[in-house]
Amino acid sequence: MSIKQVKIVGYAHSDEQFIVNANNFKVRISKNSRPELEGPSPLEYVLAGYAGCINAVGKLVAKELNLDLKSLQIEIAATLSLDKYQGKESNNRAGFEVVDVLV
Questions:
Q1: Pick from 83, 81, 85, 86: which is nearest to 97 by CA?
Q2: How far is it, in rounded angstroms, from Cα 24 to Cα 46?
Q3: pLDDT given for residue 33 in this prediction
Q4: Beta strand 75-80 with 96-102: parallel, antiparallel or unpaired?
Q5: What is the mean predicted confidence (pLDDT) over 71-90?
Q6: Angle at 58 (CA atoms; ends 70, 28), nearest 5 degrees
Q7: Are 10 and 21 in contact, with CB atoms under 8 Å apart?
Q8: CA gap 88, 80 in Å, rounded
Q9: Are 56 and 74 in contact (CB under 8 A)?
Q10: Sign, Cα dihedral of 5, 96, 35, 40
């Protein structure tokens, strides 16, 4: 069995931006509230990671089935309530309520 450890280190650069050092790259995670702090939001990064996983598995499955995969496009749309994030009283749980994936 092959095992790989993945490690990142992150720090708060300001109240509106978080910087992650991952594999010699600096990844900026932002609230997207100020243009000078460019970077996807944490929610967008979660969906991007999910899309990356679907892409990797899709390519593996295509190879196992001897399919000549030329291209793969993945669109993910998610819905969530912002009440808890905004500190409002809510019976809804935090996080995504619906995640739609189109491959």
A1: 81
A2: 20
A3: 58
A4: antiparallel
A5: 89
A6: 95
A7: yes
A8: 14
A9: no
A10: positive
Q: Confirm whether pTM is higher than 0.90.
A: no
Across the chain, mean pLDDT equals 86
**5-36: pLDDT as tens digits:** 888 899 887 777 888 898 888 888 887 655 56
Q: Which two tokens stand for residue 5?
A: 């450890």
CA pair distance 30, 17, nearest whole angstrom: 5
Half-sphere exposure of 66 (CA within 13 A, CB side): 0
Cβ atoms 48, 40 nearer than 8 A: yes
Q: What is the pLDDT of residue 87?
A: 85
pLDDT at 35: 59
Instruction: Name residues whose C-beta falls within 8 Å of residue 69's C-beta, 6 or more positions apart in sequence.
Output: 58, 59, 62, 63
Q: Report CA-CA distances (Å) from 31 to 34, 40, 43, 72, 101.
A: 8, 8, 10, 29, 23
Q: Exposed, middle or buried by CB within 10 Å (0-12, 13-18, 19+), for 87?
A: exposed
